[in-house]
Design brief:
- The protein is an all-alpha fold.
- The chain is 69% helix and 0% strand.
Length: 612
């Protein structure tokens, strides 16, 4: 299939850029931008090549200054031309290019912040206000300038908000706001203003009462957005952020349940909006409402690849809250999906080789690696083994095979993190992208450690009765388990994780697991199994009675096991409460899972003894 001409042009520019032909890319982009000043891809190529060239040692100071002058001239001349032609309100790219150029110059320390007002590019404050004045009616207005708000100095924040408020008032005066349904540009001007106030940190200085008052305004505006799902969702998102603030800062579960009620109300009025459902998924995950969470995810019509990138919304929750059978089905479906995807990508690779389409091969190989080593794909296999062995498989022979799995040992150091935590946009001040990335990194390590711990537990228990297992092999696995348990105890607290960002994945509670009696119970049974295995291996020539006596001495002490079982079942049982039921359910589910695995270990020890 023939590609559009501009796609081929982008491809050529990309190849030149990779080859280091930055001067050629710069010339091509400057020339082409005359014809299409709103093409953001061309601006990106231009800035990337220009600043890469400036970093090179062969680039003299004179050449740097010339390059900067050319970039400034190109941006300003195109803006002036659009003003002359009267097309400025239809071309956003050049105004964003001006702000981007200012940002890049500051980042590379090629311009000083306090001198911007005297330079041809001008003051960012004026450009941001101009952009809002021109494009406030577009839903994308805030998203366009979100990253440039940080260009404002502290002394400029209040004047900026005053000028934005003046724009909103002017828009309201030009429209009749007495009707039940208000004009579209009035809605979006108001939304942009409130979003910008939050982006510069105004909400952080508000009291709980002030936040509730503002939240009530949002709810009132949702009622006046019957003709626009998008505007209603934007107001609901702002209200959700305010209620989330109250949840994390002062009011706890009460504010969380209010958030759920509000978003359910908005969703019932505007069912086509996906953002409300995503926020509800996040909230329901906290209280363990997994059935409602599954319904919402099904209604989102998540595609195959998105089941990997958005899988974290549900991953680990079904078994956390006692829905073991639903978890088995869910993880089995995920495993089938990833196996099918791997097969399809492999077929695409074969086809690419056959057709000589070699440039596609590296991308397909990279995609295949990301899919097969995905944190969701690897975790789905482990969780499927754990739940199936404990709650589905009846024959003990099949239990051992299920615990072991049918794959090679997992290299947890290469597990890929494909999760998209930005699916719920952040309106917070500062650098939310950086905060979200930090949360993603922390949760990645915790998720991988949790998966490794679970995998070692399964393999240790399976080794009790595996065909080729030995006491040496079991000892090695148990040593690895203890070492990793110590690692988790040192890195994760046993207290309940405090809620972080609205974009954070659901908590995993590794700290609580490794600090309780769960692993000591399994450890005690495994230690006895190793001793039993050693006796069996070393008694080929001994009589039956001595062997039986030795075995009795090495079997687990009933009192010790009983104490550990009691600690697993009752230890740190959370207090009762109407808003705490999910905590008790989570505690009981974890205890039930541990006791099921312990009972399997006992049965496997009995099976070993049957052969003596």
């Amino acid at each position: 299939m023939q590609q559009p001409v501009h796609f081929l042009f982008y491809r050529i520019l990309s190849l030149h850029q990779k080859a280091g032909n930055h001067a050629l890319v710069i010339e091509r982009c400057i020339s082409e931008l005359k014809n299409d000043p709103d093409d953001w891809t061309l601006w990106t190529f231009l800035f990337d090549s220009a600043f890469e060239r400036m970093k090179e040692e062969t680039c003299s100071t004179e050449e740097k200054n010339t390059l900067i002058d050319r970039l400034v001239e190109r941006v300003l001349s195109l803006i002036e031309r659009t003003h002359t032609l009267g097309t400025g309100d239809r071309v956003r790219g050049i105004y964003l290019a001006r702000l981007t150029l200012i940002t890049r110059l500051l980042e590379q320390q090629l311009a000083l912040r306090n001198q911007l007002g005297t330079l041809p590019l001008g003051e960012p404050l004026d450009h941001l206000v101009e952009y809002v004045s021109m494009f406030h009616a577009k839903p994308c207005c805030f998203t366009d300038i979100r990253s440039f708000v940080s260009l404002l100095g502290e002394h400029q924040v209040e004047p900026f908000l005053q000028r934005i408020a003046a724009i909103v008032n002017d828009v309201r005066e030009k429209n009749d706001t007495s009707n039940e349904i208000i004009a579209e540009d009035v809605k979006w001007a108001d939304i942009v203003c409130i979003r910008l106030r939050r982006a510069v940190g105004t909400d952080e200085r508000m009291s709980a009462l002030e936040k509730r008052t503002l939240c009530a305004h949002m709810v009132g505006m949702v009622q006046r957005c019957a003709d626009s799902d998008l505007a209603a969702a934007a107001y609901a998102q702002l209200a959700a952020h305010l209620l989330w603030d109250l949840y994390t800062e002062s009011e706890g579960s009460v504010a969380l349940y209010e958030l759920i009620l509000m978003m359910e109300w908005v969703h019932s009025r505007h069912p086509s909006d996906p953002l409300c459902r995503l926020v509800l998924c996040r909230a329901y995950a906290i209280i363990g409402a997994t059935a409602q969470l599954q319904k919402l995810m099904q209604s989102l019509d998540i595609k195959n690849v998105q089941r990997d990138t958005l899988g974290y919304l549900l991953f680990g929750l079904l078994e956390q809250y006692g829905r073991f059978n639903a978890g088995i089905i869910y993880y089995t479906e995920l495993s089938v999906l990833f196996d099918q995807t791997e097969k399809e990508i492999s077929e695409c690779l074969t086809t690419a080789y056959k057709n000589g389409n070699f440039p596609q091969v590296p991308r397909l190989v990279e995609f295949l690696s990301k899919i097969t080593k995905s944190i969701i794909a690897v975790g789905a296999d482990i969780q499927s083994r754990a739940l199936s062995a404990c709650f589905a498989v009846e024959k003990i022979e099949h239990v051992v095979d299920t615990l072991n799995g049918d794959h090679e040992p997992i290299d947890f150091s290469v597990v890929e993190d494909n999760r998209d935590l930005n699916v719920i946009p952040s309106l917070n001040s500062g650098n939310p992208s950086k905060l979200i990335e930090e949360v993603k990194q922390r949760s990645y390590f915790e998720q991988v450690d949790s998966m490794k711990l679970r995998d070692l537990l399964l393999k240790c228990v399976a080794s009790i009765a595996a065909t080729k297992s030995s006491s040496t092999h079991m000892t090695s696995l148990l040593t690895q388990l203890r070492k990793h348990r110590d690692h988790c105890q040192n890195n994760y607290t046993d207290s309940v994780p405090q809620p972080e960002l609205l974009q954070s994945p659901p908590p995993i509670f590794v700290g609580s697991f490794v600090s309780g009696a769960h692993i000591p119970l399994i450890d005690a049974l495994l230690s006895s199994a190793i001793k039993v295995m050693k006796i069996i291996e070393n008694t080929n020539s001994e009589g039956i009675v001595p062997v039986e006596e030795k075995l009795e001495d090495e079997l687990p002490d009933v009192n010790v096991i009983e104490e550990l079982v009691t600690r697993v079942a009752e230890g740190d049982l959370p207090p009762r409460g109407s808003l705490r039921m999910h905590i008790r359910i989570r505690h009981c589910s974890l205890a039930l899972h541990t006791l099921a695995l312990a009972s399997i270990a006992v049965k496997l020890i009995e099976r070993r003894l049957e052969g003596v």
